[in-house]
Amino acid sequence: MKSKRLLLIVGVAVMALGLSACSGSPELSAPGVTLTVDPAGGPQQVSSGVQLLLLLTVLSLAPSILILATSFTRIIIVLSLLRNAIGTPQIPPNQIIIGLSMLLTFFIMSPVYNQVNQDALQPYLNNEIDQATALDRAAEPIREFMFRQTREKDLLLFIELNGQERPQTLDEIPTVVLMPAFVISELRTAFIMGFAIYVPFLVIDLVISSILLSMGMMMLPPSLISLPFKILLFVMVDGWYLIANSLAKSFF
Q: Which burial class, exposed, middle or buried, applies to 120 when counting CB atoms under 10 A from its CB (0-12, 13-18, 19+)?
């Protein structure tokens, strides 16, 4: 039951953010959609059809929005760089890396989803607010999260590319500008963390290579000898604990 509620909250949040980015009509209806074919359609029926088409378009983009508007981007890149730094490009498998990234994403984003549930979803389900208000309230916590992780330099870049004047408040920045700025900020942060992860493993590779050269064993691949030492180092320092701890704290 809790998993179904979480998926519903995430769906509402993603839909709100997608509609905000697409600048679509806020009058879309998700629950209880009924499709009818009526050849004598009036303007109101045509408008409802367009709204339904826009709704389906937003839902088809939901996975991309979920990946690019949450902590998933940073986590998946850091874990992938960690795997390459150790020298095991296939271990852990991609399914494990993606699954762990999703679990950490839901854990890190849980305060945001709880706020969406409290401020938008539950009042809407209780008929206390209309759909447009619910979508606006659902987008606010996600935008606030992205603003905290986005550099001002990146925001100004896309504001200038969009041909807008410099806004006075954060509320004046549209979601279509915020999202790409957030993504490139996350990429920068992820590569900085990846560089810090690479350094100790690079030192091990250099030491092993120097030892093999001094012994005249130039035909022996250094990675074959350094791999067990890198795995041992990662286990000795409790690497998975450090990585999960660093990733989680980097968002707070």
A: buried
CA distances from 67 to 26, 56, 186 (A): 23, 18, 12
Per residue in 91-113, pLDDT (tens digit) is 888 888 888 888 898 888 888 88
| Contacts of residue 151, Cβ cutoff 8 Å, sequence gap at least 6 | 181, 185, 188
Vertex 168, ends 188 and 182: CA angle to 5°? 20
Work out the pLDDT band at 25, boundaries 50, 70, 90: very low
Query: Tell me, what DSSP letter sits at residue 170?
Result: G
**What is the C-alpha to C-alpha distance for residues 45 and 57, in angstroms, rounded to an integer?**
18
Cα→Cα distances 141→27, 41, 169, 205, 227, Å? 20, 39, 16, 44, 43
Let me know if 140 is exposed, middle or buried by CB neighbors in 10 A (0-12, 13-18, 19+). Answer: middle
Which residues, 6 or more positions from 17, have their beta carbon under 8 angstroms from its beta carbon?
Answer: 65, 69, 138, 139, 142, 143, 175
How buried is residue 228: exposed, middle or buried, by Cβ count under 10 Å (0-12/13-18/19+)?
Answer: exposed
